[in-house]
TrEMBL record:
Family from the record: Belongs to the drug/metabolite transporter (DMT) superfamily. 10 TMS drug/metabolite exporter (DME) (TC 2.A.7.3) family.
Keyword annotations of the record: Membrane, Transmembrane, Transmembrane helix
Transmembrane segments: 28-47, 71-101, 113-131, 137-155, 167-185
Subcellular location: Membrane
Annotated protein name in UniProt: EamA family transporter
Database matches in InterPro entries: EamA_dom, EmrE-like
Species assigned in the record: Paracoccus aestuariivivens
Database matches in Pfam families: EamA
Keyword Transmembrane helix: yes
Amino acid sequence: MALSMASFIGMSVGSREMAQNMSIRQVLFFRALVGLFVIAPFLPRLWPELRQMRSVGLHLTRNIVHFTAQYFWTIGVVMLPLASVFALEFTAPIWVAFFAWALLGEKLTKARLLANIGGFIGVLVIVRPGFEVVDPAAGLVLLAAVGYGLSLVLVKRLTRQNAPAVIVVWMILIQLPLGLAAALTDWRPVHAADTPWMLLAGAGALSAHFCMAQALRRLDASIVMPVDFMRVPLAAIAGYLIYGETVSFWVFLGAAIILTSNFQAMRAERRR
């Protein structure tokens, strides 16, 4: 989960830099294209499982949902401060807990509910709705959060029959043509100077989802996601160091609430 959080932040920085010269649809396409080159050496090893076409319909559904959510999320990355994007995105655990209960039959224990509630309160403290986040792009990020919540639960379901690496390969194979079809409707010239950002965004996306799938394979989805709340204060620090975005007292207060909620939930889960 720590590697996943770092990778997501790297992907967001790379995507924001790419969007300075490209359309957002191109950003999604090139992220997937870089991912294809990264996974290519591993395809022979994964081919025996890939050719079995396990849960291919579920892979398709998951990736259409995820691709749409990514599009909305990337708009937010370009238009909002990084901390605000990640904070709004973290309404997703509420949907994760709901979809995990509805689709996977996971238990909604008191500890998990309190962790999600505490984490969401921490996000509200950071964002302070009505005071800081007023951009219309915030609504798109909230829609992306619903999509991510459903997508993560579908990943959890896929791990029952698919290795995490295979889930990531299917993500690239499905989202690459989706990204190309979308990018061709709004294609702009590509500059060599954007190559490092393509590599960062593409490798970050691949690493983030691989690490997330590994975590989801080992833990219930409603345990994994409260830990991921830590991405919010980390994104605030990255935004400050790279873009000079202000890190206010509210970010640190929200982070303290998130940490406390997660710590208490982990203790309760270990006892259980």
